[in-house]
Design goal:
360 residues, alpha+beta, elongated
């Protein structure tokens, strides 16, 4: 081994060698008895100095060793050579804008994009079942939204019980929330819950005070849903007193019916109960997406589709006719978006059911 790696383009050190009798399945393959089989398994731990050197793959070391087969002492030959890199997590980007490099099992700290002094972290774990393997855990980017969480909580306090908000107050609050949502690349469930509670508190105001800011508020809620972080889960649900948000991962490759329904709370649930599976018996509202929904998407749109967003409004003050300022909705409101695209010419219908808020 030492002679093979001498005067090579790569700096490789042999730091440990161990010998093992050749036993087990490999003996059966060559049809030799235990007495006749003279082979040994040699394990060698190699260390490669990658500083100021080109990258080195295992197959290059393998080829180098096999080429030197003839240089071994008489009677010795390499039967097989297997080279593998030990317990390193591969380079990864998760979520977008967060680059995690190749590292051994350890915690890696990454500066939050655009937020000096704040850091995200991610742990590279060693696989307990196979210590030569390693894998990334979910990224922790909560510190990257700490500043946003602090501002959001201050706004939430301004909208709490006992606060009398004017139309101008509400417009200002919606604008502040919009700035938070626009600034964040990914919104975790903690920040998302705070922002949804702000909108829920706003909805307790008279409809006349909501009219001016209603359009911007609805756009901001939709953008918030689009940015909810789904990296560590397939579903996220946020329920508040006056509205609820459900986000579900979605892939154009799956041909399954997607269900979403929401009903009154049961047991100890304080607000609403969501279901992403088979649906509920008597929901306040439900959406059933057909399996053919994403069938005819272009390749460009297919890349964009990763989620379905569902928003339920218990209070409907954001839905008014700005011109006539007349008419009152007599049902709940349910909104559904697929990613951030428009889908047309459906083969099968999307089924939406919404209860009236009072008997008709």
């Amino acid at each position: 081994l030492n002679s093979t790696f001498q005067s090579w383009n790569y700096t490789v050190y042999v730091v440990n060698i161990s010998f093992h009798l050749n036993t087990g399945e490999d003996k059966i393959k060559v049809k030799r008895s235990i007495v006749d089989d003279q082979r040994l398994v040699i394990w060698a731990l190699l260390v490669y100095n990658a500083t100021n050197s080109p990258s080195l793959e295992g197959k290059v070391i393998q080829q180098k060793l096999l080429k030197n087969n003839e240089s071994l002492d008489e009677g010795l030959r390499l039967y097989t050579v297997n080279v593998r890199q030990l317990d390193f997590c591969l380079a990864d980007e998760d979520p977008k804008g967060y680059q995690w490099p190749v590292i051994p099992p350890s915690v890696y700290i990454f500066p939050c994009p655009g937020k000096q002094g704040f850091y995200a972290s991610r742990t590279c774990h060693r696989d307990p079942a196979n210590t030569s393997l390693a894998y990334w855990g979910p990224p922790d980017i909560s510190n990257c939204s700490r500043e946003a969480n602090e501002v959001a909580n201050q706004i939430l306090n301004l909208t709490g019980d006992g606060q009398n908000l004017t139309s101008a107050n509400i417009t200002s609050i919606v604008e502040q929330v919009k700035r938070i949502v626009n600034k964040e690349e990914n919104i975790d469930i903690m920040l998302g819950s705070t922002l949804m509670n702000i909108f829920s508190n706003i909805l307790t105001s008279p409809d006349s005070d909501l009219l001016e800011s209603s359009s911007e508020a609805l756009k901001t809620i939709d953008e918030l849903a689009f940015k909810i972080d789904l990296n560590s889960t397939s579903h996220v649900n946020i329920t508040t007193r006056n509205l609820a948000l459900g986000v579900s991962s979605l892939s154009p490759k799956t041909n399954e019916v997607s269900n979403f329904s929401i009903s009154l709370p049961s047991n100890n649930e304080s607000y609403f109960q969501m279901d992403f599976e088979s649906g509920q018996v008597d929901p306040l509202a439900s959406v059933i997406l057909p399996p053919t929904l994403l069938e005819n998407l272009s390749q460009e749109d297919s890349i964009l589709i990763k989620r379905a967003q569902f928003t339920f409004f218990n209070k409907t003050g954001l839905f008014q006719d700005a011109e006539t300022k007349k008419g009152t909705l007599v049902s709940y409101v349910m909104a559904c978006s697929i990613g951030n695209i428009t889908i047309q010419d459906l083969k099968d219908p999307v089924r939406i059911k919404i209860k009236h808020t009072r008997n008709q």
